[in-house]
Design a protein that fits this description.
Elements (H helix, E strand, L loop, with lengths): L14 E5 L5 H4 L1 H15 L2 E4 L7 H6 L1 H13 L3 E6 L15 H6 L3 E4 L4 H9 L5 E2 L15 H11 L6 E3 L32 E2 L5 E10 H7 L14 E6 L7 H13 L8 E5 L7 H15 L7 E5 L10 E2 L3 E5 L4 E4 L7
Helix pairs in contact: 9-10
């Protein structure tokens, strides 16, 4: 993979834009949105503005994919906006692809951040050769009940406000959550979600160290993109560290196995240097996913050299660390560490 264009670092006082690219939650549950907006302003000193349709109803968002794409293109074109953060994911971003202009993204590089269905937009940025950031959204991460998690605040500062390499990423020792408390009920805003203990990350190699550029996303959304011009080609996967996570839909083990076998059949698993897997929602299928990984990659494909880490703090549990597309990372099986080796931002 060729190095990508790096966007400029965020600084306190910068203006960022929020956007609804899939589900129109911000128009349906605005109270939660404004909590997240306030946290971005108070914790990071940012000025937050909404793209023109960010707070429109879910019905409008659904029926107007072109307007969503125009919001994104407009945010990239606006020189006052230094970063774009998604309000939330969904399952509908793929419908904006016909209206995207890669030249606008490439010629106006800036931070884009989100996860889940935002895999669509991340791989659009990747096709435009721009580094983007697989991390929290306004609703999930910034608008956390009561307060943002300290682990999340520290991650954002290191990921978006620094021109230094992130370095070694530590598991979140304070615990994690995927507990659902209804956003429609404002009484829950002041109820902390229950934390589960972090049992650590699981390494599947006893020794060795590999380095590769980060590429991946949400499994179900990668499935949406297969066969389109936006799915990375085989050469893009060469010497990558493949990051993968699953959504709150909790795909069953057969779907997970079929996905991996397809990636093997395409030759992708034979190109990559390593694989990291995010902690599944509510830990559903966690051990089974691990067993399937070993079966497909080691037994069926004979890739015994391929290091893997599972149960990691990214994806659909909270809090998370942020993964920058196209940036060099390292799996060290001897020291049981995962590190981001290269700065993702420039001054």
């Amino acid at each position: 993979m060729k190095p990508l264009i790096k966007p400029k670092v965020l600084k306190p006082g910068d203006t960022i834009a929020t956007i609804s690219l899939s589900w129109g939650a911000a128009g349906e549950i605005p109270g939660r949105y404004f909590i997240g907006k306030r946290r971005l302003e108070e914790n990071f000193g940012l000025k937050v503005v909404e793209t023109p349709n960010a707070l429109r109803s879910n019905d409008f968002i659904y029926h107007n994919p072109k307007a969503r794409a125009e919001d994104l293109m407009g945010a990239f074109l606006n020189p006052e906006i230094k970063a774009i953060i998604t309000n939330i994911g969904g399952e509908d971003s793929i419908r904006i692809l016909p209206f995207m202009d890669l030249s606008i993204i490439q010629n106006n590089p800036k931070i884009f951040m989100g996860f889940s269905d935002s895999t669509i937009t991340h791989l659009t940025c990747f096709k435009a050769r721009l580094v983007s950031f697989y991390g929290p959204s306004v609703y999930i991460g910034f608008a956390e009940n009561v307060n943002m998690f300290p682990y999340q605040i520290e991650d954002i500062k290191k990921s978006l406000f620094s021109t230094q390499a992130y370095g070694k990423i530590e598991p979140n020792q304070a615990g994690w959550t995927s507990e659902r408390l209804a956003w429609e009920n404002p009484e829950f805003d002041n109820v902390p979600r229950k934390l589960m203990p972090n049992d650590g990350w699981k390494f599947f190699q006893e020794s060795g160290k590999v380095q590769g550029r980060l590429l991946g996303g949400c499994m179900e959304v990668l499935e949406f993109l297969k066969g389109t011009d936006y799915f990375p080609n085989l050469e893009d996967w060469e010497d990558c560290i493949f990051f993968l996570e699953t959504s709150e839909e909790m795909p069953n083990p057969s779907q997970f196995r079929w996905f991996l076998r397809n990636m093997a059949a395409q030759g992708i698993l034979h190109k990559i240097k390593g694989l990291i897997l995010g902690r599944p929602y509510d830990l559903v299928h966690k051990d089974t996913y691990d067993s399937i990984l070993k079966k497909v990659i080691y037994e069926e494909e004979g890739l015994h050299h391929l290091p893997m880490i599972t149960g990691m703090d990214f994806g659909h549990t909270c809090p998370v660390f942020t993964l920058p597309y196209g940036i060099m990372a390292e799996i060290d099986s001897d020291k049981k560490t995962f590190s981001i080796l290269e700065p993702a931002l420039i001054d």
